[in-house]
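Chain X:
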Amino acid sequence: MKKRVNRYDFDTTIKRRIRKKSQILGMSRIYDEIWNNNDVTQDYKQELLESLEFVYKKIITLNFCIISH
């Protein structure tokens, strides 16, 4: 089963003209609600660190192999 992804495209929202302070405040409120809601956002820091560690280990291994030959 494919995981459902909820998305809110701020680029599309921002492309329309914003003329009033209330519009800016409204968009800011929506952004804050989404950003601070753990049900719809996810922290990718640990996943990113694990990916970087994997890449780093591969680079070290490749460099070792090149130097050894």
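Chain Y:
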Amino acid sequence: MEDLTARSIPIFKKQPGFVNMEVLKAMGGNGTLTVFKWRSITDHENCMSSEDWSSLNKEWEDFLGREDVHFEFVFTGRDWM
């Protein structure tokens, strides 16, 4: 997973609207939560459909399994930046 994450970070960083990401790992367990902050849902969706992301997205799906991937969007009412 670390290799996949390391290859993903540069792709996210160059996408318009990307603010930052944080990886949280469970203590004593195998759970991981990755929090991505985007300026807007549209920016996130554009990244997920970009050519840059398409090859790694397939690798992530194979690694995680489709049922384990969950996206949730929270609107703060203000810009992140």
